[in-house]
Amino acid sequence: MRLNDISWEDFETLSLEQKRPYLEREEGDGLPYHTLFAQQFDRSLLERLCALANRIRFINKSREGALYLKSVLAHKRAMLYFSQPSSRTFLSHLAACQILGVTTGSVRDAATSSEFKGESKEDSIRTFSSYFDMIIMRSPEQGLAEKMAWELSNSSRSIPIINAGSGKDQHPTQALLDIYTLVRSFENTGGLDGRTVVFCGDLLRGRTVRSLSYLLTRYEGVKQIFVAPKELQVPQDVISMLEECSVDFEVSTNLKDAVKKSDAVYMTRIQDEWDSSKGASAKIDTSMFKFGAEELALLKEDGCLLHPLPRRDEIATCCDRDPRAMYWRQMRNGMWIRAALIAATFGLEREIMGCGY
Ligand code: NCD
């Protein structure tokens, strides 16, 4: 199945699971060609990508290894098209490209591109595809990456797209790095299966929550607890997805209770850029949804604290030096797993796993 075998209208009506085969590489290795949403990754793919990320970070430790990695995609160019603010996602994709020798170009503000003159996004993307071999894109528009992937696959120059955040909807590469961080955090204490993960903050509008919640269903018996003020509680589509997967979950307003039961806590900031009227989020009482010294004291000794960042005050800085605070490592893990994803997208999994470094 290929994206140019199906009309956009028909593709749009498919479920995410049904869309998945259309987005795979033609080589039949199960790896994604376009990476658009978390549902594209099953357990085996997640394990392959984590293994590849571990391999890349090991190879990169020696000068010879790093120079080898820099040669593997030296013939490729990637366009970073970010029309929404970003620090970590932009920089870690850029660094991932640099590790693999991919040269890059970027647009970080549509006001500096021809979109400002009225060019359609479709035309902008086709323009990028004329000069680059991959597009890594972030947009405030839900579903845009999907539409653009279809457009490119139906053009004379099909190149892969990586969704680096689409509206309030999905952030698949963030979910990959979150999973990679959780897997590494629990690798010496029995693994991620059977753990309890607490999500706290703006669960309604946080796209990282939707993508990670889905990926956690790929692990056995992972319980999910959603802690948020009522107005920002996890949306119905996530609840329905968890019910369909028969996943054990709880919806709560009590962070301390949830932390006591948790193995991992995933804090998020209030996503007030989506407020329908200015200052609407500020009227919500979020004071009970912050992680500080008291919550840290309740967290298991082998537990971990994550945050996709940027943070405001939802994690007190006094937690930063605790060995369970994983957000700094999480951010660096993003670079490695994104390097793995880019290498895999270009068909280098076998070569890198089997190279002599
Ligand atoms: C997140 C995002 O952009 O969705 N940031 C990120 O990519 N690390 C989370 C956020 O902005 O709160």
Describe this structure in words.
It is a single chain. With 357 residues, this protein is α/β, with parallel strands linked by helices. 39% of the residues lie in helices and 12% in strands. It contains 14 helices and nine strands. The protein has helices at residues 8-12, 16-19, 43-59, 63-72, 88-99, 121-131, 144-153, 172-185, 207-216, 236-244, 255-261, 293-298, 327-345, 349-354, and strands spanning 77-82, 103-107, 134-139, 161-166, 196-200, 223-227, 249-252, 264-267, 304-306. Strands 7-6-5-8-9 form a five-stranded parallel beta sheet, sandwiched between helices. Strands 2-1-3-4 form a four-stranded parallel beta sheet, with helices on both faces. α9 (207-216) links the parallel β5 (196-200) and β6. α3 (43-59) packs across α13 (327-345), α8 packs across α9 and α8 crosses α13 (327-345). The radius of gyration is 20 Å and the shape is globular. Bound molecules: N-carbamoyl-L-aspartate. Residues 88-89, 165, 171, 174, 207-208, 268-269, 271, 308-309 line the site of N-carbamoyl-L-aspartate.
